[in-house]
């Protein structure tokens, strides 16, 4: 049996681990940055029950009007350091994965590392890389402008 594909992305962000963790876990902040590059402005909706076993749901529209939704539950939470969550896209409920995000404080900011394990195939891995790269770039713009919204 072969291992399923995984994805790891790293990005140095000029914001504190606390600010970035809050952006990932506070629905009022998530709605300002989550989604790939082509996310329609103002379309993101988010719900979180921030506790191990608590559920989350994120919904957004792409610029071409396609509705996207992911949901799951938190598997681990260490405030300002890491979170892990089961991740399932509504369009592919038979292909859940595990997303882990760590926030390591460094001089001048935070090293964010996102790992997604258990992807269905290489096409899914490539798709997730595009989505997460766009989301992390949107996150970076949000937290570096203060993340005050």
| Structural class determined from secondary elements | alpha+beta
**Helical stretch count?**
3
In helices, the fraction of residues equals: 10-25%
**Principal-axes shape call:** globular
What percentage of the residues does DSSP assign to strands (E)?
35-45%
Separation of termini?
A: 47 Å
> How much is the average pLDDT?
94
* Poorly predicted tracts of residues: none
Order of helices and strands: EHHEEEEEEH
Major sheet summary line: 7 strands, antiparallel
The order of strands across the largest sheet is 1-7-6-5-4-3-2
Description:
- The chain is of the alpha+beta class and 149 residues long.
- The chain contains 3 helices and 7 strands, in the order βααββββββα.
- The chain has helices at 17-25, 27-30, 122-144, and strands at residues 7-13, 45-48, 55-61, 67-78, 82-89, 97-106, 109-117.
- A 7-stranded antiparallel β-sheet has the order 1-7-6-5-4-3-2.
- Strand 4 and strand 5 form a beta hairpin.
- The N and C termini lie far apart (47 Å).
- The mean pLDDT is 94.
Short description:
The protein is α+β, with helices and mostly antiparallel strands and 149 residues long.
Please render the helix and strand layout as text.
Layout: E1 7-13, H1 17-25, H2 27-30, E2 45-48, E3 55-61, E4 67-78, E5 82-89, E6 97-106, E7 109-117, H3 122-144
Antiparallel strand pairs: 1-7, 2-3, 3-4, 4-5, 5-6, 6-7
What tags apply to this protein structure?
149 residues; alpha+beta; 7-stranded antiparallel β-sheet; 7 strands
